[in-house]
């Protein structure tokens, strides 16, 4: 309507005022806004408001269980290193494992689009089966729905999961405090870039596969080596940045990250430069970030590196009482910049 | 390709050989085939193979929990008597309640299509909130994903649920035996016809709304009045017919139904005649069917009729050892016909 750039409204915010836009699913600011403004207020309760990846429920008789849910809409459904079936199992197992829970049972609910080749369905089911078997967790209940061509996209999967939380274990962002040290279990952004490369048919330097993997064993090893762990999280949608910003802002703590310490594969770094992304914003599906007390860092790092899924584990930063609510990246040349969430989507449908 | 009808293949079976068709989601034979041939074999375990609407898990320390999941893809998302939000809460509460479990927690996972009006989302969330509040069950964990325009259909919801199973309670098709009597808690087909009428803009005789309602209270009242109840089920997709055929065929028992005893509203009967459907095949979302021992029928029926959601409860038939695997409808004029599942879809996307 107007030819003046100065007068032109920024299109995303306007659109996002009254309709769902892709950015609402990005794991960025719009996702937070949607959830905090439109969904959470309806369902206020302590378990939900903790906004951890799993709710912990006390069932009486001393039993505490963790309960989690995720819907998977990754596109394409097959990608190097996995597919939507294994991803759906790993993702939900990981949400349980990050609460320190031992996975006990999964549900598997399918929304299939008319026209999906049955061969694709079988491949996805076989992949989910193999992933669940490898973890040793049974799929105990399920559901299958079909929608018409053009009302879905091949296959969407919801997996929900139940786990048993060991007696006495207390994990979560509520336990993080100044002086805690931050570890990651390996390289950042492998999953997001592998999916994106498949979707866009990008040629990467070297082989890159998704890191999709079940983290229950790694998490248990970490908890044994360092019982004082404050919190674990698998940095999926929105990447490590989303986890750090969330902890800093919810707990009004400062977080300092040493940019040079972030482990990143060359193929991911190259693709990110090409695409204008930063690995810290890109999804992982087989990595954990752990907040540990200072006196537990050495034991924790050794335990992670001893495990096949943690060989590239690294210390990346610390929690401070300076600059509450802020994540600061210390750059290799001695500079400093604030790490923020992107407003809208960088990488839609990555999980 | 051929102009001869005799040579023309039946299109549904051919298409269904290598691709998903709408009938795979109908609750009819194709749905059973898909699940029994392509999904169950991958995940064999006793809890899943019971094929009840909920899995019962023993967590040790004497705690047994029920776990269930359902994805909702109903179209349209708003219909007389409810919407996809209340439906998703009621459906999952009912799956828990049919196992005799007391609902403890729900998860709520959204797949939103780009372009969905936020006002619609808010209306659905408010409806889910009100439904969960009325049951007294908290939504403790959730997830939100967004897919592009044309890759979804407004809003799909997965709700999973956890309930506590009272000590000593054993319910399920495994407990049904010859001589058991069959009750339904009210009129058949209200939900399916209400949704279909909204979708097709049918004018019905009189007002008809979905029966979508939470059955936990009704189920508890029934269990108190008649502790010998063998099995309860909410006959949703595929209607009462799907439940009866499944019990008869899985347990190799005969079931006889008195057609004249089936409670059906005039508006539903009229719409079914117009559409060539039978109410026994049409989905309900606020009704239960109960298998009870003969000496418990009077107490069970009285308890159902005493409850606001069971006022139209009726005896409809019995379990026999004749004709194992078969459901027989006795017609008002003394005839008899076999009740079977439709091959493919009658009513797509009804829940």
From TrEMBL, chains A, B:
NCBIfam families attached to this UniProt entry: hypE (TIGR02124)
Which residues belong to any copy of the PurM-like N-terminal domain? 52-165
Please report the organism this UniProt entry assigns to the protein.
Vulgatibacter incomptus
Segments spanning the bilayer are none
Pfam families registered for this protein in UniProt: AIRS, AIRS_C
Which family does the record assign? Belongs to the HypE family.
What name does this protein carry? [NiFe] hydrogenase metallocenter assembly protein HypE
Give all residue intervals belonging to the PurM-like C-terminal domain.
177-328
Stretches assigned to coiled coil: none
Q: What is the lineage of its organism?
A: Bacteria, Pseudomonadati, Myxococcota, Myxococcia, Myxococcales
Q: Name one GO biological process term.
A: protein maturation
